[in-house]
Give the backbone structure.
Amino acid sequence: MKYYCLGIKGSGMATLANILYDLGNDVEGYDDVKDYKFTQEGLDKRNIKIYSDNTHPLDKNMILTHSVALKENHKEIQRAKECGLKIKKYNEILGDITNMFESICVSGTHGKTTTSTMISQILDEVYKVNYFIGDGTGHASKNNKIFVIESDEFNRHFLAYHPAYTVITNIELEHTEIYKDIEDIRKTFESFANKTKNVVVACGDNENIKMLKLKPKTIYYGFNENNDVYAKNIILNNEGSEFDLIVNNNFEGHFTLPLFGKHMILNALAAITICHLENVSYEKINELLARFHNAKRRFAIENIKDNVMIDDYAHHPTEIKVTLEAARQKYPDKELVAIFKPNTYSRTEKFYKEFAEALNIADKVYLTEIDCNREKSEDYGNVTSKVIFDLLNNGEMISDDNIDSLLKHRNAVLCFMSCASIAHLKDNYKNKYNNI
């Protein structure tokens, strides 16, 4: 079949395009963004054509799928309709793919990408598996039995999926432009999890998860000792994290992670439980986790002279909090500087106090204006970054025009955080600092 993917440089669409190609389909794409994005690495390796104008011919036999960030009046969507292309929703195509394999669907407000990456790396070493990771990384073969897929609750996408196993890392209020309240989110996760054919693996420390009425067999993990699987004797230092694994009150080994922050141990517990259900020994899982490498833009570290630069996808207050705490753990003797670009007016309006509280963990905070391509500011009372800025202990507004403000920091950790594109700020800073 032939697919035309609009918004192909978006993390989800890029991953889908990679998988469709690997499964033997012809794939082309379009994106308004002409600059290189980290998500297109897999697309380039597969020589998938990416267009950025509206002059190339369209094959009427192609199936059009597009990012939800693109409005229905987008000129390329309109052109595709005029050419008679069949339109199929992104999540419906993914739902069809999950039905082709034994699918492990990793869901949750936070931690989906890292947990999916852990599971896919371990199982791929043992069995060879298909995987869909939300950093633009995807691979598939019709010969593989297992499909590990990061399952996003945005727009209730994951309700189209068919899980053999479901992971729920946590549930918090998020995507307030989609869900009316936390009860709405809980009910959606409950509906998704209850589609599970085999086993649900869920964090028992999360109150919202414990409120779910789950019908499939459920294994709970966490730090609390009333869980089926839990970690104890936890050690957090500047080399990583260590813990003892307890399963059904039995000691199953001392695990070492090259990762920082207690939240990473929770992600590991979910991955360990799923992989053991897939008949991988605890010893083998421990060995593979010890050399784990995380997904793109997840606590990605780069040394710049005497400074450390961390690039992270954090865009929710909880994610910012744990990212900054992890940076403190690894670099306790360095100044901690946060650079944050808020994304969506709805999230900023709902969580501006929580954003400020999380960002105040840092010694210094630089804040950009909100970057959003799917909402209009006038629909949210003209909300700006100022609502966060006014609550910061030591804040400063920043843009490409005043990036020199970052150059005064020495022996510092600079955490660049956003789910929007922040690469230009990071690259501009790096080039200028290297030339001092």
